[in-house]
Amino acid sequence: MTVEQTDVSANAYVLEQMLLQHRVEKFLYSEAQLLDHWQWSKWLELFAEDVLYWMPVRKNRLRRQRDQDEVPQGIEMAHFYDDIRSLQLRVNQMHSGTHWAEDPPSRCRHLVTNVRVTPREGETSASPEYDVWSNFLVYRNRLESETDIWAGERRDVLRAVGESFEIAKRTILLDQNVVQSKNLSVLF
Length: 188
Hints:
Structural class: alpha+beta
Number of helices: 3
Order of helices and strands: HHEEHEEEE
């Protein structure tokens, strides 16, 4: 292989990675817009049938134990641990008009930033999967005086489906370990 051929293939790889990054960011920003505009059913369509959507409870650790603050092995405790059926129940409840914590619905703003995308190790399937890390800030205002702000990191597994993606797994890591909100009725 000549130097010119190596440069061309390296440039093609860089361009491919830039396009992938753009497509993933566009997907995540569109998802945030669906949530902000109360389009929960359309949001739910973004998830794979085998999805795991969960928010583990985090613990404060000493510096020497910091590595233990990562996603726990197994389920010790979680704010929620949903599959596609339980997500559907949550969405149905939001649409029902009888969800006491969301009537009237909260006004939310989902900000997504610091998106990092890598192909999953050993991935060779026809529908490639990607590990996607992103930071989020969710602002919620409810009624006249209730305001909540949640910040954290999402660790997603996105599966390529045609020209788009579906969310095969979402781990939501709040930066606070004690949730001071009255409820966690919003979707992340």
